[in-house]
Design a protein that fits this description.
The complex is a heterodimer of chains A (402) and B (802).
Chain A: H1 2-15, H2 39-45, E1 69-73, E2 76-86, E3 90-91, E4 94-95, H3 104-111, E5 125-131, E6 142-150, E7 154-161, H4 168-182, E8 184-187, H5 194-204, E9 215-218, H6 220-227, H7 236-244, H8 257-265, H9 272-298, H10 307-319, H11 323-335, H12 340-357, H13 360-372, H14 376-401
Parallel strand pairs in A: 5-8, 8-9
Antiparallel strand pairs in A: 1-2, 2-7, 3-4, 5-6, 6-7
Helix pairs in contact in A: 6-7, 7-9, 10-11, 10-12, 11-12, 12-13, 12-14, 13-14
Chain B: H1 16-21, H2 26-35, E1 43-49, E2 56-58, H3 65-73, E3 78-80, H4 81-91, E4 96-99, H5 106-120, E5 126-130, H6 134-150, E6 157-159, H7 166-175, E7 178-181, H8 183-190, H9 198-202, E8 204-209, H10 217-236, E9 242-247, H11 253-261, E10 266-268, E11 278-283, E12 287-289, E13 294-295, H12 298-309, E14 316-319, H13 323-335, H14 337-340, E15 347-350, H15 356-368, E16 373-376, E17 391-395, H16 401-408, E18 418-423, H17 428-435, H18 438-441, H19 455-468, E19 471-472, H20 475-478, H21 487-496, E20 501-504, E21 507-510, E22 530-534, E23 540-544, H22 546-552, E24 558-561, E25 564-572, E26 577-582, E27 587-611, E28 614-637, E29 643-648, E30 654-665, H23 667-672, H24 677-694, E31 706-711, E32 721-726, H25 734-755, H26 769-772, H27 776-788, E33 794-795
Parallel strand pairs in B: 4-9, 4-10, 5-7, 5-8, 6-7, 8-9, 11-18, 14-16, 14-17, 15-16, 17-18, 22-26
Antiparallel strand pairs in B: 1-11, 2-3, 12-13, 19-21, 20-21, 22-23, 24-25, 25-26, 27-28, 27-33, 28-29, 28-30, 30-32, 31-32
Helix pairs in contact in B: 4-5, 10-19, 12-13, 17-25, 19-21, 24-25, 24-27, 25-27
Classes of the chains: A alpha+beta (402), B alpha/beta (802).
The structure holds zinc ion.
Residues 293, 756, 758, 761-762, 764-765 of chain B line the site of zinc ion (ZN).
Chain lengths: 402, 802
């Protein structure tokens, strides 16, 4: 049987006029060898082929991206580009330095994750990766890994880049080292995407993945919760415009990123420069978004809050059982001219928080509001809460008195 | 894991019929049938397999004491010889194939070693078990978890299939010790995402594959490659798992297992389980029209037999070939329930389309004895536990010896006689068996076509493998794909032409934004199949393969499903979709195709001479290129067969490159046999069609897996030629098997024509006279007689090939 196959392939190749079993010397994809296999076979083999691997239509650059420097680690040599900004630099409407003011408690509230109280943006890594596809699976590679961080002098962006697939282990190992050292990450949708792409590839290469014990603020969720309603979509580009006033002018759509890298590998003109820029802007936007969200929460009293957003934050505080924050945000919602529905929600939350705090005065105030709003059902529920709170506070007073 | 169950406890008697029918034993049933003046003559054959004593021994020494204690506590103090042998071999680390009939306790053969690996490794070892159906894997999971619980361990076995919710998948990946899944999930879900399963692969010790005899043809050849991928990934994570395979009795079991796994596998195939006497009857329905060769409908005959066979004190199973058969026969039998002394509820249908819960309930009813009669498709052929029943009726030969025995294996309680009746239909295969029942009871005769190196299948799978891990030069000589020829060429092709891979240094890397497993099916042709959609409901009503689509769903065709007629309004050839509308049509359509076959190259060659230097006939294997064009279709009235119009079909030709078996006779022989003029064409068509129909006796395939081209004067051979080709692009080894078994096939074909009682040809032999002509039958017979008489063809070593 096997003999027959040998003959067969040879014949098929001869038919097409190619030599017998030519073996390529390098990986030169542009080889214009005559088609050695019949049409049905080519068609089948080519199925799933990426249209993006066709030569780039737009003018691009040739050769390696500029300003790459080599790094050396336990798993070999890789390359990266390092860029720096002064602390005074603004991205959109937000000075990068303002991220350093962010308080952990506000970040924890935004991320609805109590562990994030320990998060300092000044020590965290801002992570964003570019991959060869969104489908996932073992064949998908992260060919550009952006890690931004604050330094003593300003803000520094490290963009680890795969010159070829053979550098993958070196790049992943270096990422694992940096992430492990920082122990804290900020990303946009990174808990669902970036982290898993890297983690999967690290497992394949036998590199210990550091993510499990890492603090991770994924900005996608707070952005979505607070600003999602009313926006067309939840993409980073939409959020950064809405929240941080960032306007990108020449952004390369993310879908072209794989093609740019394939063009580069094939020695064709490529648009990797735009991919680097896109990744850089994404990372700066992470800083701006984190800084801006934390600032608004931190300076809550000076901000104008829609009842909807204030209520969202009250619910976040509720999930964290941060009752005084919950009461304050519910109150902010109450003062922000809520619709009847929102008012009910706000009063209920405020009452819940007040009860948990044992603050009978605040509860009484909520009850007065409910009465004024002519909400009989709500009123009845709140009165039961008050009765419970009063009983409990009596119990406490007696307990401590005896 | 139990070998058998006690007979069903008798249910309270309900009246006269019930009382009268209870207590009739299987031998009494046989006597009754043999004495019945109408039925007795229709039994062309009776066969008895005497009761077989149990061959068993103590639990193997090498069994872990903890496992031994659990088995002893369950009352399992001895094992059947084959179980003990298989477990010992597996514990020695050998790859093992257990090829014994259904219900011989095969489960324990893999469960014991697999659990022992877990014990030895303190829970670190992992296992993957592949089952051909979801129902089977769920069945096994329950059994495994019970054993693990009895061992007091916290290990988990899970089924992982399309129904597994995403939230559970996560836990499964991290904590599943034994993953029960199927080849499709392994191919498209697990292997491409191996990083998520790295725990499993790093500690993978055992791969279990159940029902290995189902792995043939395109599917089997694909699965063999999926296993290559699996082993490759396991090796990457540092593990070398052992195989434990289970199957029905197989011909060339070791060779098949080797082709499938690439390893030398120890075969255990001597069944040590006891069996009561087994009685077999072959029932040939009466000939209604000797001229047309038409026999009484097999379902009707099944009902007739049921009157004798069904009753309250025993359990019977009826196997039908088609789902509709199940529905029809179930209805028939329920209507006659009172005649059998049964309640309609004690008679149940069972097939794949039923909801799992419904199926579980019927299985339970069969085990408990509350269901007395079940009518099933092949859904109950595989290892689902329904206990053992008393009587099996096979409505039609299931197409393979393995299936026949799997089905017959459903009956026979410990120490009690059982009865199996095969009802043969008006079909050459069935009629052959009716006159040659020995075929059924002899050692397996079919060879499984399996070719993991089929260029198309291999290259698709190499593509998937390259996505999973980069290919290195070094692994081509040592890795799991080492046995496969041309992997370097395929890799080069995938990089240079398809641009899916990039070669850097000694390594090929995946280089595309795609997930190839999504586009690669295991059953072959999948994405090429044409979906048939109802324009009104937008729902799919059927599916048809690429070649078949030319003649059945061209625009204007009348597509028939279960007696309903649909008119094809539009055939979107590019997107593989046909749009149909339900119509009341008084005609059906018949398309004409033009098939041109070009011989590209001949490989094996054997011939016989009439006299020195004059060839008599010759056989070859070789590669052919087949072009099929649909030219026109006729509208033909139902019943009258009046032609009411002819229209053209406009579709591009279908091209197929594949392997073929060729039979030619010399012009001298044709003349000597008097096969001239129209006779020659008729003989040729008749013989070709018949060979194709009886081929499944010797190679595991369906007649429709083989394409046929007969030429009175072949342009290549300049003489009459019959070409039977593999209808899979690239071929999966059927031609090869035909070449090896051609004499058996010719003999069987001759047997069928000789024995057939029709006058001028009928569906049970060479086809109706309308197709094969007045002389078709006699000419075919003359030809076949000549071919099988005298010496066999001798191999001719290749000199200058064409
Ligand atoms: Zn006949």
């Amino acid at each position: 049987m096997s003999e027959a196959f040998g003959d067969r392939l040879r014949r098929l190749r001869k038919d097409a006029g190619a030599g017998v079993n030519p073996r390529p010397v390098g990986g030169e994809a542009e080889s214009a060898a005559p088609t050695p296999l019949p049409a049905w076979f080519r068609e089948r083999l080519g199925r799933g082929r990426d249209p993006g691997t066709a030569p780039a239509t737009a003018p691009g650059s040739l050769g390696e991206p500029r300003e790459l420097v080599e790094f050396r680690g336990a798993r070999g040599v890789g390359t990266a580009r390092v860029s720096r900004w002064e602390l005074e630099h603004s991205h959109g409407a937000v000075p990068l330095a303002s991220a350093l003011q962010a308080r952990g408690s506000d970040l924890a509230l935004l991320g609805v994750d109590a562990r994030l109280e320990a998060l300092e943006l000044g020590r965290a890594l801002f992570l964003d990766i570019e991959t060869t596809g969104l489908a996932g699976g073992a064949g998908t590679k992260a060919f550009l890994v952006g890690l931004g961080r604050f330094t003593a002098q300003g803000f520094e962006l490290w963009q680890g880049f795969l010159r070829g697939p053979e550098d993958e282990a070196a790049l992943l190992d270096e990422c694992a080292r940096q992430v492990g050292e920082a122990g804290a990450l900020v990303s946009f949708f990174g808990k669902s995407f970036d982290r898993h792409r890297l983690e999967d590839k690290m497992r394949v290469h036998g590199i210990a993945a550091p993510f499990e014990r890492c603090l991770h603020l994924d900005l996608y969720h707070p952005c979505r919760r607070l600003f999602g309603p009313g926006l067309a979509d939840g993409r980073l580009a939409t959020m950064e415009r809405e929240i941080a006033g960032v306007e990108r002018t020449h952004d390369l759509a993310g879908a072209f990123a794989p093609a740019a890298w394939y063009d580069f590998l094939a020695g064709r003109p490529h648009r990797l420069e735009e991919v680097f820029a896109h990744n850089r802007d994404d990372i700066l936007s992470l800083v701006a978004l984190a800084a801006e969200l934390a600032r608004r929460v931190g300076e809550a009293e000076r901000e104008a809050w829609t009842p909807e957003r204030a209520l969202t934050l009250a619910r976040c505080a509720e999930r964290l059982r941060r009752w005084s924050d919950c009461r304050d945000w519910a109150r902010r919602a109450r003062f922000a001219r809520p619709a009847p529905e929102e008012l009910r929600g706000a009063l209920e939350l405020e009452a819940r928080a007040a009860e948990s705090l044992g603050d009978c005065e605040a509860l009484a105030e909520v009850i007065a509001m409910a009465r004024a709003a002519e909400e009989p059902e709500l009123l009845a529920r709140l009165e039961r809460r008050l009765a419970r709170a009063v009983r409990r506070s009596r119990g406490r007073a007696e307990g401590s008195g005896s | 894991m139990s070998h058998s169950r006690p007979p069903a406890s008798p249910t309270p008697e309900q009246g006269g019929v019930r009382l009268a029918r209870s207590g009739r034993s299987v031998p009494e049933l046989e006597a009754l049938l043999r004495a019945d003046p109408t039925l007795a003559p229709r039994f062309s054959h009776w066969h008895r397999v005497p009761a077989r004593a149990e061959r068993s021994r103590e639990l193997p020494e090498s069994l872990d004491p903890r496992l031994r204690d659990v088995l002893l506590a369950r009352g399992q103090t001895r094992l059947y010889e084959h179980q003990a042998r298989a477990i010992e071999l597996a514990l020695e680390g050998r790859d093992v194939l257990i090829a014994t009939p259904t219900a011989s306790g095969k489960t324990l053969c893999y469960v014991a070693p697999l659990v022992q690996r877990l014990l030895e490794s303190k829970g670190d070892a992992r296992a993957i078990a592949l089952f051909p159906t979801k129902a089977l894997s769920q069945d096994q999971s329950t059994g495994l978890n019970a054993l693990i619980a009895a061992l007091g361990q916290e290990w988990h076995s899970f089924t992982y299939d399309g129904d597994t919710p995403p939230s559970v998948r996560r836990t499964l990946r991290d904590d599943g010790h034994i993953v029960l899944t199927n080849p499709w999930m392994l191919h498209a879900g697990i292997l491409p995402n191996h990083a998520k399963w790295s725990e499993l692969f790093a500690n993978l010790r055992t791969i279990v594959i159940d029902e290995v005899h189902t792995l043939s043809g395109v599917f089997g050849s694909s699965v063999a490659n999926v296993l290559r991928r699996l082993l490759r990934i396991a090796e990457h994570y540092g593990s070398r798992p052992q195989f434990i395979l289970c199957s029905a009795t197989l011909r060339d079991a070791a060779a098949h297992a080797k082709r499938l796994t690439g390893r030398d596998v120890a075969v255990v195939d001597e069944d040590g389980s006891p069996s009561g006497e087994r009685i077999f009857g072959v029932y040939n329905p009466p000939l209604l029209d000797p001229v047309a060769g038409l026999r009484a409908n097999a379902l009707e005959e099944a009902r007739r037999l049921a009157v004798q066979l069904c009753g309250p004190s025993r359990q019977a199973i009826f196997f039908c070939q088609q789902r509709t058969g199940v529905e029809v026969l179930t209805r028939y039998l329920k209507e006659s329930a009172a005649e059998f002394g049964l309640e309609p509820d004690e008679i149940r249908g069972y097939r794949g389309g039923y909801l799992p819960l419904h199926r579980r309930e019927i299985e339970e009813g069969l085990r408990k004895g509350s269901v007395k009669v079940v009518v099933s498709t092949n859904a109950l052929e595989l290892g689902i536990d329904i206990g053992r029943l008393d009587v099996a009726v096979l409505v039609g030969y299931p197409g393979s010896q393995a299936s026949f025995w799997q089905r017959a294996g459903r009956v026979g309680r410990r120490g009690q006689p059982s009865l199996t009746v095969l009802i043969t239909r008006s079909d050459p295969l069935d009629q052959y068996l009716s006159s040659n029942p020995d075929y059924l009871f002899s050692a397996p005769r079919e060879r499984l076509g399996l070719d993991p190196d089929n260029l198309v299948i291999l290259s698709e799978q190499v593509k998937c493998a390259a996505f999973e891990l980069p290919f290195r030069d070094g692994e081509l000589g040592t890795g799991s794909f080492r046995g496969a020829p041309h992997v370097p060429e395929i890799l080069d092709y995938l990089s240079a032409e398809s641009k899916l891979l990039l070669r850097r240094g000694d390594t090929w890397h995946w280089m595309a934004d795609a997930y190839p497993a999504q586009d690669v099916t295991l059953a072959g042709g999948g994405p090429d199949n044409v979906l048939i959609l109802d324009v009104e409901t937008k729902k799919a009503i059927g599916e048809i393969d690429r070649e078949g689509s030319l003649t059945t769903v061209h625009e204007g065709a009348i597509y028939q499903v279960q007696g309903e007629t649909w008119k094809v309004e539009r055939f979107d050839y590019e997107n593989r979709r046909a749009y149909v509308r339900s119509v009341e049509s008084d005609y059906f359509t018949e398309a004409e195709v033009d098939t041109t076959l070009r011989v590209l190259r001949l490989e094996k060659h054997a011939a016989r001479e009439r006299e020195a230097g004059v060839e008599d006939f010759a056989i070859h294997t070789g590669e052919v290129h087949v072009t099929t064009v649909a030219t026109q279709y006729k509208k033909i009235r139902f019943y009258t067969r009046e032609n009411v119009g002819t229209e053209a079909i406009h579709l591009p030709p279908e091209e197929l490159d594949t392997q073929a078996f060729v039979l030619t006779i010399s012009n001298e022989t044709a003349t000597a046999l008097g096969l001239t003029g129209s006779e020659r064409g008729a003989a040729w068509r008749g013989a070709g069609g018949l060979l194709r129909k009886v081929a499944p006796l010797f190679l595991r395939c369906q007649p429709q897996d083989l394409g046929l081209s007969t030429e009175v004067r072949s342009t290549h051979f300049l003489r009459p030629a019959i070409v039977l080709y593999d209808r899979v692009q690239g071929g999966v080894g059927l031609a090869e098997v035909l070449f090896e078994s051609h004499r058996d096939v010719l003999n069987a074909a001759l047997e069928v024509v000789t024995r057939c009682e029709c006058r001028h040809g009928c569906p049970a032999c060479v086809g109706p006279r309308a197709e094969c002509g007045e002389l078709g039958k006699t000419a075919t017979r003359k030809l076949l007689e000549h071919l099988v008489s005298g010496s066999a063809a001798r191999r001719v070593e290749p000199e200058g090939v064409a």
